[in-house]
Amino acid sequence: MKHLSLLFLFFVGMISCFSQEERDSIPTENDSIAIVDTKYREDQFYLSVTYNLLSQVPDGLAQSGFSSGFHLGFIRDFPLNEQRNVAIGVGLGLSSNSYNQNMLIAEQPNGDYSYTIIKEDSISFSKNKFSTYMVEMPLEFRWRTSTASEYQFWRIYTGLKFSYVFYNSSKFDGSIGTIKNSNIDNINRLRYGLTLGAGYSTWNAHIYYGLNSIFDKDAKIDGHSVDMRSIKIGLMFYIL
Asked: 76: burial class by Cβ within 10 Å (0-12, 13-18, 19+)?
């Protein structure tokens, strides 16, 4: 995923540049004239780190270790009222997510994939996870206590997030060897879910609840679909 790493570094670099520009533009006590922008927007870069949970899991599936998510992008702000404290936000970003658990994914000779819950008394392993890499588009309804001259404020942002999985992989390291897969057909490309963010100033709590399954209907364990969803809980960092 060399190209994805370069994209992440590009976004981080842009965030640093815009952050410095914003600090330079904020009036200080030494400024003789304070310029107030009455048409301000909360256009901003976002950076989020989450702990990823799985819900509606098959019987016997359990998570292990820390399943992480990293999300960054840009949101365009469209104020809806004269006070500009109510707005719609539309964004574009990148997301990387991993899920450590005990479901073995293996490719069969015919190209299909099998899904098996690993039992502790049969197979031992040191690593077993699947990962998704996505382009994401958040759509938010935004309320905040900001003003044209107040740069620290309370906010509540809620909405939907649509994502497209452009790459996925799985890796198993254990007593039966190493098993690696990439671009697994059974992982849903299109993902969507509800989001809620709330907090004060730069740091905010963030929750994502997936509305559709990570895997499609052809991914099955003992004849039952692997219909599990993603829940992400973490912190969201905004930079104007």
From this structure: middle
Amino acid in position 119:
K
The Cα 192–Cα 136 span in angstroms is 9
Sorted by sequence, the CB contacts under 8 Å of residue 185 that are 6+ apart come out as: 113, 218
For the chain, the maximum distance between any two Cα atoms, rounded to a whole number of angstroms, is: 74
Under DSSP, the state recorded for 40 is -
Range list of β-strands (E), the chain: 44-55, 68-79, 86-100, 103-107, 113-117, 125-144, 154-174, 177-182, 190-200, 203-210, 220-221, 224-225, 229-239
Q: Look at residue 1 and tell me whether its pLDDT is greater than 80.
A: no
Task: Measure the CA angle with vertex 201, ends 142 and 211; round to 5°.
Answer: 45
Rounded distance between C-alpha atoms, residue 202 and residue 231, angstroms: 23
Determine the Cα–Cα distance for residues 44 and 133; give it in Å rounded to an integer: 22
**Residue boundaries of the structural domains of the chain:** 2-22+42-195+234-239
13-27, 150-164, 166-180 — which is least confidently predicted? 13-27
Using alpha carbons, select from 130, 189, 193, 148 the residue that is nearest to residue 165. Answer: 189
Q: Is the pLDDT of residue 98 over 90?
A: yes
Give CA–CA dist 131/52, Å, rounded: 11
